[in-house]
Amino acid sequence: MSGKKKLRVMIAGGGTGGHLYPGIALAQEFQKRWSSRIMFVGTAYGIENKVLPKHPYEFKRIWMRGLQRKLSLANLIFPLRLVVSLVQCTFLILTFKPNVVIGTGGYVSGPALMMAITFRIPTVIQEQNSYPGLVNRLLGKWVSQVHVMFEESIPYFKGQSDIFVSGNPVRGGFNLVNKKAALKKLNLQEDKLTLFVFGGSQGAHAINQAVLNSIEELKELPGLQILWATGPHDSKIVTDKCGADPGISNHEFIEDMASAYAAADFVLCRSGATTLAEIAICGLPAILVPYPYSAGGHQEFNAKARETTGAAIMILEKSLNKETLVSTISDFSNNPERRESMSKAAVRLAKPNAAGDIAVKIKPLLKNIG
Predict the structure, then answer these.
(1) What are phi and psi of 231, to 5 degrees?
(2) What tens digit of pLDDT does each residue of 79-116 get?
(3) Residue 104 lies in a domain
(4) Is 303 found in the same domain as 217?
């Protein structure tokens, strides 16, 4: 590697796991391929502030925060936040000297990409959703490359010639966890079917409430147990009602998703792109409840696409009542042939090499990297 410099990669994105975890997957891929130094840029408000300190990467926080859907003081000071964040990113770029800056979504990626473009540093957008986020739509034509998960995203990046349908990067370690060990770690029984209920890094109140309303009927389904990641907002109410039940393993947050997926036989969850990429790699049949307020209705689009392929079924949140939920879970529970068919359909959709494909496409942008 004589004459080759250590690769320096800045990855900006966060707020939710859907924006953070693809960045971690890319960081793992870069370090696997090249001698790399990785810096993440995030905020003190998103999931990255909880997750990244546990990883071996540099993590710098900026003051950026997204616009709120309602009138608030935070919206009034947004212009000030943006200016301060641009100054902070200027300092980080001048001191870190990245070879490439990658934005994985969320408002925090905007200042980092904007300053990298200003300094003529190669820039890349990795877009997970069918309907791209505001920052990515605004900056898409100015960056060096764009990588998307859905072909349907391409029209939103007018003026960008280097756009690739690369899939969604997924962290390493999935499919490597032993099911028996995972069940033991999560206090679950080996001889029961496991439904994994989760709603992303913040949980999903509507899903939690629907399961709570149906819990007595679900407990009567023979051979079924529930692994439940409630999120912080509903953790107490779920624990108060179900904490002592041996057939329910509830957690506020599960960081070891590889073990959770390994323990699961099927899942009940939202239909964000990162979640779909992970459950596809793990071959998990899914009951998808799309978040009804996702930008451009992309979660419903995602769920419909998975339902069409036979990998999942979709229940709209407005239809998520006790009767529908219990009937659907009962059908999954009592029909192993259907679960097997859906599992195979999910695996066919997986793109386990997405991070590697993106790294290969990015390499021509890098200088003096072997």
Answers:
(1) 80, 165
(2) 999 999 999 999 999 999 999 999 999 999 999 999 99
(3) yes
(4) yes
- The reply to whether 283 and 324 lie within a common domain is yes
Alpha carbons 182 and 310: distance in angstroms, whole number: 27
User: Angle 235-242/205-219 helices, nearest 10 degrees?
Assistant: 10
The CA-based diameter of the chain, rounded to the nearest angstrom, is: 66
Cα angle: 77, vertex 298, 306; to 5 degrees: 150
Residues 139 and 191 in one domain: no
* Long-range contacts formed by 304-309: CB under 8 A, 24+ apart: 305/150, 306/271, 306/276, 306/346, 306/349, 309/345, 309/348, 309/349
| 60 is a domain residue | yes
**Contact (CB, 8 A) for 269 and 197:** yes
Radius of gyration of the chain from Cα atoms?
Answer: 21
Q: How many domains does the chain have?
A: 2
**Nearest to residue 57, comparing CAs of 43, 33, 40, 34?**
40
The amino acid sitting at 38 is: I
Domain identity same for 302 and 359 = no
**Is residue 351 a contact partner of residue 162, using CB atoms and an 8 Å limit?**
no
- Listed residue (335, 272, 264) closest to 302, CA to CA: 272
What phi, psi does 173 have (nearest 5°)? 110, -20
- 107 lies in the same domain as 124: yes
- Tokens at 41, concatenated: 């840029």
Same-domain pairing of 121 and 64: yes
Backbone φ, ψ for residue 262 (5° rounding): -65, -35
**Which residues are registered as beta bridge partners of 333?**
none
Say whether both 115 and 195 belong to one domain: no
**CATH code of the domain in which 296 resides:** 3.40.50.2000
State how far the Cα of 350 lies from the Cα of 163, in Å rounded to an integer. Answer: 20
The set of residues, in sequence order, having a beta carbon less than 8 Å from that of 325 and lying 6+ positions away, is: 210, 211, 214, 315
Q: Are residues 261 and 240 in the same domain?
A: yes
State yes or no: pLDDT of 2 exceeds 60.
no
State pLDDT tens for residues 325-344: 999 999 999 999 999 999 99
CB of 275 closer than 8 Å to CB of 294: no
Question: What is the spatial distance between Cα 234 and Cα 305, in angstroms, rounded to a whole number?
Answer: 29
What is the span of the domain harbouring residue 260? 179-349
